[in-house]
Structure formats: structure tokens, C-alpha cells
């Protein structure tokens, strides 16, 4: 194991190594020639193998045979992203979504009845939240669960076509029970969205009476996952089917909850399921790491065009433009990996057995999870496409794994929350926190705050700000200052714009709608800063990481250089210094490219493909630095 891998693996290094040992022997790469049914059967078998390893048990209550290591199970799940993403998603549905709803929203009666079977994989479930007509707007789902006090049952019903449960992983083939999210109705009053356990198949595999199951069919990717649609025609389930940790209905139909505000209760319920969103971010990060490993190792052997001075063909990774493609993306993958480690650690402390509920920390976790999921999955989509292009025609062949990575991760940007909606949620939280901060200032503080806003506007208009701040662009402190200034500036100016919505008679929707681009920029700036901070916290643990962090920070700044110039933080000439520094760092890190991607710790068996046939074993120079042995490809 390399020193870089040790730093990247972090707190749950032992868990990651166990997964490498347990699952690394499996050939977890999709067969492009397999039929959909064959592929689904292979993934179902792999899920059983995963259950037999008892790794999924790790995150559940020790009273039911688990280990209580919530963070460990998410770290293990992330490792599956280096293998087959259909397995990652199928496992995520079973133990992350269905199992997470059962564990987090249910009480002892549900745990006693189902938790062990769910952990063992003998009870296969699905997570029926999304509806055809309501994807991101979960609070207004149309499916109903109406309590019948005469029979002591809830009647689960799909009232119109738009209320059909859609895209439900596991529904088409394997799941026998669904965690169904529906509007709870009792005594003629609706109490908002709640979750119910609803059997959808008999022991023989047939649909339960009143349940219509259909297959979503072949998708752009993830065809090892049996996505399906569910329609309920007055399906009756016992009163105890309500997952009642936060609300309950008595036999006579009386509704009760310790959280009286319906919206707060709804978001509290959803907050307990944040594990799924964090897991998606981790899976996307792993897929991007795999693509970068393939493209970098190929680029270190593929030769193209001759050097006039030597007459020899040049390895493509020695071209600056190729380094510019891969090395900044590697740096950002490192940054996101460390941010993910922090996120998992934060989640573990809040959800481990015996943890004391902390509403403020929970809100911060949800905000971070939403932001990192959005930025991380977009990074994966861009990076995998770039890696495909960097490998030319070879990257387009299914046998070389990149097309499957591209197809399988495309949906990550919209499931477990559409990225644009997630960033809006981040922005909303940032504005609320900002308002509280300003509201706590005394009169003198508010006067100073107003003066600072005026002064900032003057500096921006005159360009004086960029003259006042001329730090070394490679300096960690200077990069952090720029990212923090951008974040604070965007949040403060966004808050100023949104103040108009508080005026009497204001068209609040129009004001919010007109500021959406600004709010999304503020949210992205916030995530960029916390990702940078996560990397900076560990950057001194390995000699290479300081330069990798600098490359990541400069790449973020270069990507938004127009903003920094427009708002007076950089001059146009200064941005050229940023570009020059990126080029220099790419050259410095080029000899370590293989070492950097090997740090991701991906089992070789999950990388084997013809793309890498041109490799020879890397050599090590006397000074201990990694050097690639370069060979021609065919």
C-alpha cells in the first residue's frame, strides 16, 4: 500500500482494505454482451455475495447483529464505485435507502420484524419515493395513505397517473417490499408525507393484489439495476406499517407527533436519510477516480507524433495539453475525496448508536451533503467524458470500461436530488445563516457592516481590491483567501437582493426566480471553499499533497477567473499568472502521475482491460520518486 493511499483511505482504511480483499477477487466489470436479464441476475448474485460478507451489517444496530459503524458501511459502499456501478446502486437501494428508512424512521416493532432479514438480504426492498409528476418536490407527492379506523388499516392509493412511483430501483424484478412515501390522511385531515412498509410481491414472486408493477426497461446505463414502476389500487396495510419514529396514528385514528410543524417534521424525516445522498457522492467520486486511473495509465504508454530533436514518438502524457486535462482533474478528485471523508465522519458522529441529536449539526451535515453531492457528481460527469476523449478511439470501446462508467454515472446528477435543486437548498441555508449572523450584531456592528458593504462596492468599481491583494498565487493562504472572499461576497450580495422579497406586496417568487443564478453561484462558492479546507487539513501528511492542493485551488480560481476580474479580486494580467502556475504544477506533478492514481487503491482486477495492455511494470528511481516506464502501444 502506498503512503498516498493511506492518507486517502483515512479513518476507515481497514474497512476499505477489507472490501478490496473480499470483493477484489470478483470480476466486477460489466459484460457489454450480456442481456439485461443476465446482467440483472449477475448483480443479484453479487448482492448475495455482499450480504454473505456481512459488510452491509456494519452500519446497523448491534442489537440486531450489526456493528454500529455507520461511517464504515458508507466507506465500504464507496469502494464499490471502483467496480460495477450497478452493484453499487443495487446495494445502495437495499441497505442504504430501504434499510436506511427502516432503521431511521422505524421503531422497535419494525426492527424486530424486518431488520435482520433486510441486513441478510433475505428481505429485498425498494425505496418508493419518486413519482412521475413529482421528482424533486417530495413534499407534494400525490400518493395517499388513508387510515380506516374500522379495520385498523391504511389504504395506500395512487390517485392519478402522475402519482405513479417511477424509476424505483429493485421494483421490476427482486424487491418484495417497498418503503412507500405517501400523504398520510386520517379523519379527513392530511398530515404530510410519511413512510409506510408495503409488501409488493408474494412469496411466489407475483405482484400483491392491488399492486401493479411494470419495468422501466433498458436505460442509458445501470442496466444491472431492475428499475420499475409501482401503482397502488387501494392496497391495505396494517396500522403498524407506518414507520412511526416521528409520528403515529392511534387505533381510533388520532394523529400525534412530537414535531408539530408539518414542514419541520418533513425535513426532519428526510434528514435521517442523508446517508443515501452521501453514498451517491462517494460512488461518483470513485467512478471518476477509476476513469482517471485508466486514462492516466494509458496516457503514460500511448505515443503519438515525433519529437524533432530526438526523432522518437512522444508519450501523450508528456504533452502539456494532456497534462492539463488529467492532472487538475486528479487534484480535484483528491480534494473531493478528502471532503467526502470529512462528510462521512460527520455523519458517523451524528448517527452512530447512542449519539445525542443535534439539530444544528444535522442541518450542517445535510447542507454539506447536498453541496458535495452536486459538485462531486458534476465533476464525475465532466471527468469521465474528458478521460474518454483522452483515450481516443480506445476509450470508446466497451471493453475498455470508460463507456460504461460514462453511461452508469450520468444519472447521478439527478438522483438522490437534482443537483440544481440541491444547490438551491444549500443557498437557502446559507442565506438563513447569514441573516442570523447579521441579526446578532449590535448597533455598532451593523453600522460597521454597512460601511464594509459600501467600501467593498467602491473597491470593486475602482479595481483597487486587486491592487491591495497580490499574494503568491501558489500560496495556500492566498488561494483560500480568494475562495473565502468569493463565497462571502456572493452570499452577502445575494442576501441584499433577496431583502426585496420582504417588502410589503413584493412578488417573492419573481424576486427569487430572478436571483437563482446568483444563489447557485453562492452555493458553489461555498462548496468550493469547504472542499479546499478539507484538503488543506491533510495536505501536510505527504510531500506531494501540497502541490496537488495548489493545483486544485488554482484550477477552481481559473475556472471562475471572469468573476474574480469583474469583482476586482484579480487583474486580467494576474489571471495569466494563474495559468502559468497551473502549467508549472502540471510539469512538476507529471513524473508522479502514476503514483497519484495508484493512491486511489483500485484493485487491479477491476481495471484489467485491453486499454492497459501496453504497460510495463513501473520502475523506482534512486531518490524514491516514481517514474513511469514508457512503452509504445501497438
Automatic annotation (TrEMBL):
Limits of the Acyl-CoA oxidase C-terminal domain: 489-611
Pfam families: ACOX, ACOX_C_alpha1, Acyl-CoA_dh_M
Name used for this protein in its record: acyl-CoA oxidase
Biological processes annotated in GO: fatty acid beta-oxidation using acyl-CoA oxidase; lipid homeostasis
One annotated GO molecular function: FAD binding
Signal peptide residue numbers: none
Main location: other
Acyl-CoA oxidase C-alpha1 domain boundaries: 271-431
Domain of life: Bacteria
Keywords: FAD, Fatty acid metabolism, Flavoprotein, Lipid metabolism, Oxidoreductase, Peroxisome
Cellular compartments annotated: Peroxisome
Organism listed in the record: Pseudonocardia hydrocarbonoxydans
InterPro entries from the UniProt entry: ACOX_C_alpha1, Acyl-CoA_Oxase/DH_mid-dom, Acyl-CoA_Oxase/DH_mid-dom_sf, Acyl-CoA_oxidase, Acyl-CoA_oxidase_C, AcylCo_DH-like_C, AcylCoA_DH/oxidase_NM_dom_sf
Domain Acyl-CoA oxidase/dehydrogenase middle, chain residue ranges per copy: 126-235
Similarity comment: Belongs to the acyl-CoA oxidase family.
EC number: 1.3.3.6
Co-factor requirement: FAD
Amino acid at each position: 500500500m502506498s503512503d498516498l493511499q493511506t492518507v486517502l483511505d483515512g479513518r476507515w482504511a481497514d474497512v476499505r482494505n477489507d472490501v478490496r480483499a473480499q470483493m477484489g477477487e470478483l470480476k466486477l466489470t460489466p459484460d457489454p454482451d450480456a442481456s439485461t436479464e443476465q446482467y440483472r441476475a449477475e448483480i443479484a448474485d453479487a448482492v448475495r455475495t455482499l450480504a454473505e460478507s456481512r459488510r452491509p451489517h456494519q452500519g446497523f444496530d448491534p442489537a440486531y447483529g450489526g456493528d454500529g459503524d455507520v461511517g464504515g458501511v458508507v466507506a465500504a459502499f464507496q469502494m464499490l464505485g471502483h467496480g460495477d456501478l450497478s452493484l453499487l446502486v443495487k446495494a445502495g437501494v437495499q441497505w442504504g435507502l430501504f434499510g436506511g428508512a427502516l432503521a431511521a424512521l422505524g421503531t422497535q416493532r419494525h426492527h424486530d420484524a424486518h431488520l435482520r432479514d433486510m441486513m441478510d438480504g433475505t428481505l429485498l426492498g425498494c425505496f418508493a419515493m419518486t413519482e412521475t409528476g413529482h421528482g424533486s418536490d417530495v413534499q407534494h407527492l400525490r400518493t395517499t395513505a388513508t387510515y380506516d379506523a374500522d379495520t385498523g388499516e391504511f389504504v395506500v392509493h395512487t390517485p392519478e397517473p402522475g402519482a405513479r412511483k417511477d424509476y424505483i430501483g429493485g421494483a421490476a424484478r427482486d424487491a418484495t417490499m417497498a418503503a412507500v412515501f405517501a400523504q398520510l390522511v386520517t379523519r379527513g385531515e392530511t398530515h404530510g408525507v410519511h413512510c409506510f412498509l408495503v409488501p409488493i410481491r408474494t412469496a411466489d414472486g407475483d405482484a400483491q393484489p392491488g399492486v401493479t408493477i411494470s419495468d422501466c426497461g433498458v436505460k442509458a446505463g445501470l442496466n444491472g439495476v431492475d428499475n420499475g414502476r409501482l401503482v397502488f389500487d387501494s392496497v391495505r396495510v396494517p396500522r403498524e406499517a407506518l414507520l412511526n419514529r416521528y409520528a403515529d396514528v392511534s387505533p381510533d385514528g388520532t394523529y400525534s407527533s412530537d414535531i408539530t410543524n408539518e414542514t419541520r417534521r418533513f425535513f426532519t424525516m428526510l434528514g435521517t436519510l442523508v446517508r443515501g445522498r452521501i453514498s451517491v457522492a462517494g460512488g461518483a467520486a470513485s467512478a471518476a477516480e477509476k476513469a482517471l486511473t485508466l486514462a492516466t495509465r494509458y496516457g503514460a504508454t500511448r505515443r503519438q507524433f515525433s519529437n524533432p530533436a530526438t526523432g522518437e514518438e512522444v508519450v501523450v502524457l508528456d504533452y502539456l495539453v494532456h497534462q492539463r486535462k488529467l492532472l487538475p482533474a486528479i487534484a480535484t478528485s483528491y480534494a473531493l475525496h478528502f471532503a467526502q471523508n470529512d462528510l462521512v465522519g460527520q455523519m458517523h458522529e451524528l448517527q452512530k448508536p447512542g449519539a445525542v441529536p443535534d439539530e444544528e449539526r444535522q442541518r450542517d451535515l445535510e447542507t454539506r451533503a447536498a453541496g458535495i453531492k452536486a459538485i462531486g457528481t458534476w465533476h464525475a460527469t465532466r471527468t469521465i467524458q474528458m478521460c474518454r476523449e483522452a483515450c481516443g478511439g480506445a476509450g470508446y470501446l466497451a471493453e475498455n470500461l470508460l463507456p460504461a462508467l460514462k453511461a452508469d454515472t450520468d444519472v447521478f446528477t439527478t438522483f438522490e436530488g437534482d443537483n440544481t435543486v440541491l444547490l438551491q437548498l444549500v443557498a437557502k441555508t446559507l442565506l438563513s445563516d447569514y441573516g442570523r449572523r447579521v441579526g446578532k450584531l449590535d448597533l455598532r456592528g451593523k453600522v460597521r457592516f454597512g460601511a464594509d458593504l459600501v467600501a467593498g462596492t467602491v473597491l470593486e468599481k475602482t479595481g483597487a481590491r486587486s491592487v491591495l491583494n497580490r499574494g503568491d498565487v501558489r500560496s495556500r493562504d492566498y488561494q483560500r483567501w480568494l475562495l473565502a472572499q468569493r463565497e462571502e461576497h456572493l452570499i452577502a450580495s445575494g442576501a441584499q437582493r433577496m431583502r426585496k422579497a420582504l417588502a410589503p406586496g413584493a412578488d417573492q417568487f419573481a424576486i427569487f426566480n430572478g436571483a437563482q443564478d446568483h444563489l447557485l453561484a453562492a452555493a458553489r462558492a461555498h462548496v468550493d471553499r469547504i472542499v479546499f479546507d478539507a484538503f488543506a487539513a491533510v495536505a501536510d501528511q505527504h510531500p506531494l499533497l501540497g502541490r496537488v492542493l495548489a493545483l486544485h485551488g488554482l484550477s477552481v480560481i481559473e475556472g471562475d477567473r471572469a468573476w474574480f476580474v469583474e469583482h476586482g479580486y484579480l487583474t486580467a494580467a494576474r489571471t495569466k499568472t494563474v495559468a502559468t502556475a497551473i502549467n508549472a504544477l502540471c510539469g512538476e506533478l507529471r513524473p508522479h502521475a502514476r503514483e497519484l492514481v495508484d493512491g486511489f487503491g483500485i484493485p487491479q482486477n477491476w481495471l484489467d482491460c485491453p486499454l492497459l495492455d501496453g504497460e510495463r511494470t513501473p520502475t523506482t528511481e534512486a531518490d524514491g520518486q516514481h517514474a513511469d516506464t514508457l512503452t509504445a502501444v501497438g
